[in-house]
C-alpha cells in the first residue's frame, strides 16, 4: 500500500448508490486498522481511496490503494485525535462507484493520557466529557483535575467522565485540560481544548434629544461569538437617583431604535440589555447619561444609498459570469460571456459614477411648515432651499475619492440650528484582478472595467493537464534578509501555494489578507509563499508584511540595491513566469512543478477558503461535492448548463433595467423594515413601579 503524498482538505461522498460498513480498530503501535471487505468491486474500479479526517483540527488525508485490497493501516495520524474514516471505490476518471459509511475512532493521546472534548456549548454552560486511557485501569486512577486556563479549578472522582462548567464570562476564551492522577503518582494530561464562551458583542448605544420631551436611543449590530444569538433587546431608563422609571421591551432582534415620548425635564441614565437566545443570561451596556428638557430643535438627518440593491445584483452577476468563463471547458460561449460582462460593467460604471442618496429629515419642531431647510455640503450652503414639510430628499453627487460631509440647517433661525453631519462616500468600483504589467494600462488603475478588454483566454488555466517545470527566479527573503532562489531544490514535504501580487494593487492587498487568514487556519498543511512582483522599497514592504507570520514573504528586487550580490534576475519576475496580472496563484507539487495556475474570483473570506479547498482537492485528484462547493459547480457545467445560465443572466439584467426607476415596492419594503427596527413608547403609559429599581 502506497501513501498518497498529499493532504486533502475536504471530501464528501456523493451520488454513491451503495454505502457499506467499515470496521476500525487501534493497533498496539497506535495505528488505525481499517477493513472495508464489504465494499462492492465494480468491473471498472481502478483504485480504492481511504479518506480520514481529524475532527480536532479538521485536517484531511488520503491513501490510494489497489482495488484488490480489503484492509490497511493508517499511519499518518496524531495521538489524542478523533478521526472520521471512509473508503471510496473510483474508476479511471475518479468517479465514485461505491463508498462505505463514515466511521469514527479515537487515537491514544500521549500513550496513557485521557481524551477530552467539548460536547455542547451555550451561553449558560459548556459540557466537558472525557475518556480514560484504555491501558489504564479504573482502580489505578485516584482523581481527575480539570484545569481552566492553566489553573486547577475542579477535582472529580475517577468514576466521573463528564462535567458542566456554568460560571464562564460571556465572550472570553477558555482553555480546558484534564489531568489524570494515578495511584503510582504518575500524572497524565489531555490535549488542551480551547473555546470562546458563546455570546454576542455589545453594540455602541447612544441617545439623542429630539425636541423638549422626546428621547431617541439607537444602536448598531452585534457580532456573534461561537454561535451566540440574540433573543431580544430591552432598554432600562433610570432617573438621576438611579431609580427605574421605564423598562422598554423586550423587543425583537431586528429592533435598532427606541423612541420615548412625553419625557419630563431632567437627567436620565439608560442601560441596554441584550437577552441571549437559548439562555437565561443577558449582557448589559455600561450606564450612560442623557439630559432631557432643554428645547432641542435640531433636525435629524439620515440617509441611504438609492442604487445599493441594483449595484449588489450587478456585482453578483459579474462574479457569476467570470467564474463561468474561467472554468468552462469549451470556448464556444467565451465571446458571449465577454459581451455580457462588458454590458453589465458599463451599467455598473454608470451607477457608480455618481453617489445617489435618499436623505431622510426628521424634526420635532411644530413650526416645520413655516420654515425651510438649507442643505450644507462640505460646509458650503446650497442655493436651493428645501421646504420644511419635506421628509425625504433625493440627492446626487459627483463621484470622488474624498468623502462628503452633509448637514442641514433650519431657516429662518438666528441661533444657527444645524443637524449633526453625516459622512457619505462613493462605493468601490469592481476590482478583483489587474493587468498592471500591461504598459497600456495605468499603474494606478485597479478597476476590472479597464482590465477586461486586455485579458487573454489563457490568463486562468486551472488544473494543468501536464505539470510544468517552474522557471527559477531570484527573490529577496524579507524575513531572513537574504536573496534566495525559487523553487528550492529537492522534493518538498507538502504542497506549496505561491501567491503573486503587487503591493500597491487594491485586489492584491485584499487577497493578501485572505491568503494570510487561510494560512493561519490551515497552518502546517502546506507551504505558503507570497511574492511581490515589483521592485519597491524593501523597508515599506517589511512594514506591510510584518504581521504575516504564517507566510514566507518574498519580493522582486533591483540589482542596484544589492550591488554586492551576483544573483539577480535578467528580467522582471512576471516576465520570467509569464504572469499577465495579479493576484495570481501557482500550486507546486512535491517535485516543485506547477500543477495549478490561475486566479480566484471571490468576494469575501468564506468564498476564498471554499475556492482554495476546492483547488487543493482538485490537485489531489479528489472530487468535491457539487452541493457544497460553488467552484465545483462551475467546473462541472456542460454547454447546455452554461447556455441556460447566460440566458438567465440576460433575463435578470433586462428585468433589472425595467425596474430601474420603479421604487414603490422598494419603499414599501423599507418602510416595513423600519417599523421592525423602531419602537415607540410613551412615558404616560408607564406605571410608576419602584420595586427592584436600582441598577448596578
TrEMBL record:
What is the recorded name of this protein?
Fibronectin type-III domain-containing protein
Cited InterPro entries: ECM_Regulatory_Proteins, FN3_dom, FN3_sf, Ig-like_fold
Q: Where is this region: Disordered?
A: 664-696
Residue ranges of every copy of the Fibronectin type-III domain listed in the record: 113-204
PANTHER family per record: FIBRONECTIN TYPE-III DOMAIN-CONTAINING PROTEIN (PTHR46708:SF2), TENASCIN (PTHR46708)
Organism equals: Adineta steineri
PROSITE patterns found in the cross-reference section: FN3 (PS50853)
Keyword set, alphabetical order: Repeat
Q: What's the short name of a Pfam family annotated to this entry? A: fn3
Specify the domain of life of the species encoding this protein. Answer: Eukaryota
Amino acid at each position: 500500500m502506497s501513501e498518497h503524498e498529499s493532504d486533502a482538505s475536504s471530501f464528501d461522498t456523493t451520488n454513491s448508490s451503495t454505502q457499506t460498513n467499515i470496521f476500525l480498530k487501534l493497533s498496539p503501535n497506535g495505528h488505525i486498522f481499517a477493513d472495508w471487505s464489504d465494499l462492492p468491486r465494480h468491473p471498472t474500479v481502478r483504485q480504492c481511496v481511504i479518506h480520514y479526517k481529524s475532527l480536532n483540527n479538521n485536517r484531511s488525508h488520503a491513501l490510494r490503494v489497489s482495488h484488490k485490497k480489503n484492509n490497511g493501516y493508517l499511519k499518518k495520524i496524531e495521538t489524542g485525535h478523533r478521526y472520521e474514516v471512509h473508503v471510496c471505490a473510483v474508476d479511471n476518471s475518479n468517479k465514485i462507484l461505491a463508498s462505505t459509511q463514515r466511521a469514527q475512532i479515537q487515537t491514544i493521546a500521549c500513550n496513557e493520557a485521557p481524551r477530552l472534548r467539548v460536547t455542547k456549548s451555550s451561553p449558560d454552560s459548556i459540557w466537558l466529557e472525557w475518556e480514560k486511557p484504555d491501558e489504564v485501569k479504573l482502580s489505578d486512577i485516584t482523581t481527575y483535575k480539570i484545569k481552566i486556563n492553566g489553573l486547577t479549578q475542579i477535582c472529580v472522582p475517577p468514576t466521573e467522565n463528564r462535567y458542566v462548567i456554568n460560571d464562564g464570562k460571556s465572550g472570553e476564551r477558555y482553555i480546558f485540560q484534564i489531568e489524570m492522577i494515578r495511584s503510582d503518582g504518575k500524572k497524565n494530561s489531555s490535549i488542551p481544548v480551547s473555546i470562546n464562551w458563546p455570546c454576542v458583542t455589545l453594540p455602541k448605544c447612544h441617545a439623542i434629544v429630539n425636541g423638549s420631551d422626546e428621547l431617541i436611543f439607537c444602536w448598531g449590530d452585534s457580532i456573534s461569538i461561537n454561535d451566540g444569538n440574540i433573543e431580544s433587546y430591552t432598554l432600562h431608563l433610570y432617573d438621576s437617583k438611579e431609580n427605574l422609571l421605564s423598562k422598554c421591551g423586550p423587543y425583537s432582534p431586528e429592533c435598532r431604535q427606541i423612541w420615548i415620548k412625553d419625557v419630563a425635564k431632567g437627567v436620565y441614565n439608560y442601560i441596554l440589555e441584550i437577552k441571549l437566545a437559548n439562555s437565561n443570561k443577558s449582557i448589559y451596556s455600561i450606564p450612560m447619561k442623557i439630559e432631557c428638557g432643554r428645547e432641542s430643535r435640531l433636525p435629524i438627518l439620515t440617509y441611504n444609498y438609492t442604487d445599493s440593491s441594483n449595484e449588489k445584483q450587478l456585482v453578483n452577476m459579474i462574479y457569476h459570469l467570470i467564474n463561468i468563463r474561467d472554468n468552462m471547458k469549451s470556448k464556444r460561449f467565451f465571446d458571449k460571456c465577454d459581451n455580457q460582462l462588458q454590458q453589465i460593467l458599463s451599467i455598473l460604471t454608470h451607477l457608480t459614477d455618481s453617489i445617489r442618496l435618499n436623505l431622510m429629515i426628521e424634526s420635532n419642531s411644530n413650526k416645520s411648515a413655516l420654515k425651510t431647510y438649507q442643505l450644507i455640503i462640505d460646509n458650503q450652503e446650497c442655493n436651493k432651499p428645501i421646504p420644511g414639510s419635506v421628509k425625504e430628499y433625493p440627492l446626487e453627487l459627483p463621484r470622488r475619492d474624498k468623502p462628503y460631509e452633509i448637514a442641514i440647517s433650519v431657516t429662518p433661525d438666528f441661533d444657527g440650528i444645524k443637524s449633526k453631519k453625516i459622512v457619505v462616500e462613493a462605493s468601490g468600483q469592481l476590482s478583483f484582478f489587474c493587468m498592471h504589467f500591461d504598459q497600456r494600462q495605468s499603474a494606478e488603475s485597479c478597476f476590472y472595467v479597464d482590465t477586461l478588454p486586455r485579458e487573454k483566454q489563457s490568463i486562468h488555466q486551472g488544473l494543468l493537464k501536464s505539470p510544468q517545470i517552474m522557471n527559477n527566479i531570484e527573490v529577496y527573503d524579507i524575513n531572513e534578509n537574504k536573496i534566495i532562489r525559487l523553487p528550492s531544490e529537492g522534493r518538498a514535504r507538502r504542497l506549496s501555494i505561491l501567491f503573486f501580487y503587487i503591493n500597491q494593487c487594491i485586489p492584491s492587498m485584499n487577497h493578501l489578507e485572505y491568503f494570510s487568514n487561510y494560512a493561519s487556519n490551515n497552518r502546517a498543511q502546506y507551504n505558503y509563499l507570497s511574492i511581490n512582483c515589483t521592485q519597491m522599497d524593501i523597508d515599506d514592504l517589511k512594514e506591510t508584511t510584518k504581521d504575516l507570520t504564517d507566510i514566507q514573504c518574498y519580493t522582486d528586487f533591483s540589482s542596484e540595491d544589492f550591488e554586492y550580490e551576483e544573483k539577480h534576475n535578467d528580467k522582471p519576475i512576471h516576465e520570467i513566469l509569464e504572469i499577465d496580472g495579479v493576484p495570481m496563484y501557482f500550486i507546486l507539487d512535491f517535485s516543485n512543478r506547477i500543477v495549478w495556475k490561475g486566479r480566484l474570483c471571490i468576494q469575501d473570506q468564506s468564498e476564498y477558503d471554499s475556492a482554495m479547498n476546492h483547488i487543493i482537492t482538485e490537485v489531489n485528484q479528489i472530487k468535491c461535492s457539487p452541493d457544497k462547493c460553488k467552484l465545483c459547480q462551475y467546473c462541472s457545467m456542460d454547454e447546455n448548463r452554461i447556455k441556460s445560465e447566460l440566458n438567465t443572466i440576460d433575463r435578470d439584467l433586462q428585468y433589472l433595467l425595467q425596474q430601474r426607476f420603479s421604487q414603490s415596492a422598494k419603499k414599501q419594503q423599507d418602510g416595513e423594515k423600519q417599523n421592525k427596527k423602531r419602537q415607540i413608547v410613551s412615558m404616560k403609559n408607564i406605571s410608576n413601579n419602584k420595586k427592584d429599581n436600582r441598577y448596578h
